[in-house]
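Bug: token stream looks shifted between consecutive jobs. Job 1:
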Amino acid sequence: MGADAFIAFYGLRYSLTDAEMEAVEENTDERVLAAKRAKLQTYSGRLTDGQPYFLFVGTRLGILGVQNDSERSLDTTFVEHVMRDTAAKLSSAGFQGVPQLHLQLEAQY
């Protein structure tokens, strides 16, 4: 059993069905494959047992928690670079949508 984590991610967020999550875990999901080709990062999980799964595609900014980093600082120049670079990569890979800053709790159960 793991510990709660707090994920900071810049990019797109998708809600996943169980079947889609299986494809993500098996690296056969088209979004995951397109992200890899575009040199983007992915992160998948869910808030807690029984909640829908999610998939982030873009740039991971940090994972905070007892079993992860305890703190993270990002300067403005870095954040601006991440925003421009991620948006360009998402667009060139054919992803639709407006990238956003996502802050997600992942509670262990």
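Job 2, same session, no restart:
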Amino acid sequence: MSSVGPSEAIQELATILHRDLHPIIVIINNAGYTIERQIQSPSAVYQDITPWDWTALPAAFAPQVPVRTASAGTVGELSTALLEVTRTPDRLVLVEAKLEPLSAPALLTQLGRATAQANHRD
């Protein structure tokens, strides 16, 4: 499992496609920098990432390579997408999981608050 930013993800996606690898890639798209939103400025424009059509990118990089893509905005859609990917082990699968910008696990929210408090003490 790996976590990378948008520019690194794009480079790696192109490499994976051209090497004919068949991973399942789940992109967690929360439209920005969640940890920074938790620490400070949750609605600041600089926390946003320009929206991309992630599911269109494989075809843009390697139109001849068969892939399977899905975009999920609900738990049900994500469950369906993940079930479908098990049916295509012979190709790259890219699933975009769309989350609300402030969606975060409880631990990340706590870490953000603690960091914000520490920053204000200085």
